[in-house]
Design brief:
The complex is a heterodimer of chains A (about 120) and B (about 120). The mean pLDDT of chain A is about 90. Helix content of chain A is about 0%, strand content about 50%. The termini of chain A are far apart. Chain A contains no helices and 11 strands. In chain B, a hairpin with a 6-residue loop joins strand 10 and strand 11 (about 105). Chain B is globular, with a radius of gyration of 14 Å. Chain B has about 120 residues and is mostly beta strands. Classes of the chains: A mainly beta (about 120), B mainly beta (about 120). The interface between A and B is medium-sized, with 31 and 28 residues.
């Protein structure tokens, strides 16, 4: 099925451990995004990639790094996990980065717990 | 400053009745897009409806309609004939030219449909 695939779906990390969240889309979309969702705060943008080869910080980038590996794949890395990074992470993609009418397609999310 | 405000953290609605979810937004950009997403308990983000800032008519998609009041910067979602499957979290979001076309989300409203 066409869409956005995130792995893993669940992860428990110890404080200080590192991990990479993977995201791939098969819709030939140009733009990709990483959000985190916390109770009462909606979704907040961590990093985004408007097109292949570019990445930019979003609203809450501290503690994260990203890589746009190719047009399909956009990974999010936590170098040294902290309990404050316990959250649900969503990857999303969009056909265009320069039009207000393009909606996002979301992955199913990764529930991350840092203990 | 909060760009999207959803003032109703939670709502109850009787099955088959209509419910209105409030959303106000803040932008100085003449060109923007407004979106509503549904997040059921399973966690995925489902696109419901879109309204462009230049659209003259309110958007409708099946049982969903968007009450767009541009002067008041309001984009309320109306769900008609509520069904038990409408129980979910609902997010209002905005995409602006001046925000590099990134999608900004409100905190969400939880809707519970009662039989």
């Amino acid at each position: 099925n066409a869409g956005v695939t995130q792995t893993p779906k669940f992860q428990v990390l110890k404080t200080g451990q590192s991990m990479t969240l993977q995201c791939a889309q098969d819709m030939n979309h140009n733009s990709m995004y990483w959000y985190r969702q916390d109770p009462g705060m909606g979704l907040r943008l961590i990093y985004y990639s408007a097109s292949e080869g570019t990445t930019d910080k979003g609203e809450v980038p501290n503690g994260y790094n990203v890589s746009r590996l190719n047009k399909r794949e956009f990974s999010l890395r936590l170098e040294s996990a902290a309990p404050s990074q316990t959250s649900v992470y969503f990857c999303a993609s969009s056909e265009g980065s320069s039009g207000t009418f393009y909606g996002y397609t979301f992955g199913s999310g990764t529930r991350l717990t840092v203990v | 400053a909060q760009k999207i405000t959803q003032t109703q953290p939670g709502m109850f609605v009787q099955e088959k009745e209509a419910v209105t979810l409030d959303c106000t937004y803040d932008t100085s950009d003449p060109s923007y897009g407004l979106f509503w997403y549904k997040q059921p308990s399973s966690g995925e983000m489902i696109f419901l409806i879109y309204q462009g800032s230049y659209d003259q008519q309110n958007a409708t998609e099946g049982r969903y309609s968007l009450n767009f009041q541009k002067a008041r910067k309001s984009a309320n979602l109306v769900i008609s004939a509520s069904q038990l499957g409408d129980s979910a979290m609902y997010f209002c979001a905005m995409r602006e030219v001046n925000n590099d076309y990134k999608l900004s989300f409100g905190a969400g409203t939880t809707v519970t449909v009662r039989a």
